[in-house]
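Below is a filled-in request sheet from our internal design queue. Each sheet records the structural input a requester submitted and the sequence that came back. We keep these sheets so that new team members can see what a complete request looks like end to end.

REQUESTER: design group, bay 2
PRIORITY: normal
MODE: inverse folding
CHAIN LENGTH: 382
BACKBONE (tokenized):
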């Protein structure tokens, strides 16, 4: 059976918003078919939220998101004492059920919204709505709009500001809701907006959020991208302006070297993966804030970041820093920085993006790959 895709829709999206490459040049029929096949499987999936599993180590309640610091382990010298850090080495005994549920939620609604964008079939929108209501509306299943208990460490902290990075998987939930808005009841959409108003207020006023805002690495970038996208969704123009100012005065100046590298990421035990991840997030931020063409007087810009990392993504043998202590072989995939570079006119990025894996299955890779459905980002920047 031949797949019928609304290429007219894709063409209009591209030319209405002035991207340099039309989506019909980006999305192969095979990729669209795979996306729709995934959405078809997700039509029957039932919602799973934070209330499905509660960790006995959590200091929060049933509706509170809980996670544990990835790189923290029992101390061999004091097995019952506080955990100690082993940077870059994920502890497989940590509680991850809430994080996996959130990623699953993002994957399901992202695929359904993408399939709706490609086909216009309301069945995909209808299937996404119960998941959205379960996470943001239903009192028995909703997640509380805060992250007081994320990235906890046994014997040290019941929660930490760096846990805010866990909600990067709400980014495509937002984009999915925007794509499906015409199919969502106004009262439900208003409830979704209200949830994110509460959450972005918490992110920008709680000490955890303020600490994460000021982080000089990927955590600060992730805070800004979330705040920018959530602020757009809730109509908070002042926060969008704040993020745009920080992009110019903090993120590029404080995080990027003149050659386009990210020194803070290169110091880590997974310099390759963290450099890719931060560039993915920062390029998405540059796109949504309409800062793609902005540069500092010394030439530092998102384009310089792409130019620096592109050769080692195309050919990993050109990577001159140590290999990551874990998951080095799983990178790269179809990184979002390549996609955004492509739609802003870089043909080399487009060619490489098409060649790389668009549907990874490794959970650690998926956790660090929040922009999985680019069609949802094919809209006018702020």
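RETURNED SEQUENCE:
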């Amino acid at each position: 059976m031949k797949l019928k895709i609304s290429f007219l829709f894709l063409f209009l999206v591209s030319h209405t918003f002035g991207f340099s490459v039309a989506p019909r040049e980006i999305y192969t029929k095979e990729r669209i078919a795979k996306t729709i096949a995934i959405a078809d499987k997700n039509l029957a999936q039932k919602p799973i939220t934070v209330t499905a599993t509660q960790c006995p180590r959590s200091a929060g309640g049933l509706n509170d998101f809980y996670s544990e610091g990835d790189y923290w382990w029992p101390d061999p010298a004091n097995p019952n004492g506080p955990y100690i850090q082993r940077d870059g080495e994920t502890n497989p005994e940590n509680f991850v059920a809430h994080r996996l549920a959130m990623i699953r939620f993002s994957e399901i609604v992202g695929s359904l919204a993408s399939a709706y964008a490609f086909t216009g079939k309301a069945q995909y929108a209808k299937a996404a709505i119960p998941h959205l209501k379960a996470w943001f509306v239903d009192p028995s299943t909703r997640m509380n709009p805060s992250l007081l208990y994320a990235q906890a460490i046994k014997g040290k902290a019941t929660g930490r500001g760096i846990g805010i990075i866990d909600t990067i998987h709400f980014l495509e939930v937002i984009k999915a809701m925007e794509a499906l808005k015409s199919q969502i009841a106004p009262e439900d959409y208003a409830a979704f907006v209200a949830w994110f108003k509460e959450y972005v207020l918490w992110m920008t006023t709680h000490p955890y959020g303020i600490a994460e805002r000021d982080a000089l690495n990927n955590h600060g970038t992730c805070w800004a991208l979330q705040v920018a996208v959530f602020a757009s969704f809730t109509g908070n123009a002042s926060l969008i302006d704040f993020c745009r100012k920080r992009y110019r005065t903090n993120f590029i100046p404080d995080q990027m070297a003149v050659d386009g590298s990210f020194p803070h990421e290169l110091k880590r035990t997974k310099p390759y993966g963290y450099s890719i991840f931060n560039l993915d997030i920062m390029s998405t931020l540059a796109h949504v804030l309409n800062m793609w063409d902005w540069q500092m007087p010394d030439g530092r810009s998102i384009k310089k970041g792409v130019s620096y990392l592109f050769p080692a993504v195309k050919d990993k043998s050109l990577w001159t820093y140590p290999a990551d202590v874990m998951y080095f072989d799983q990178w790269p995939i179809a990184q979002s920085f390549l996609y955004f570079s492509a739609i802003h006119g870089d043909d080399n990025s487009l060619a490489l993006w098409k060649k790389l894996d668009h549907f990874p299955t490794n959970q650690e890779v998926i956790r660090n790959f929040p922009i999985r459905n680019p069609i949802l980002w094919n809209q006018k920047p702020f």
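SHEET NOTES:
- The beta strands are 66-68, 72-73, 84-85, 149-152.
- The longest helix spans residues 97-119.
FILED BY: M.R.
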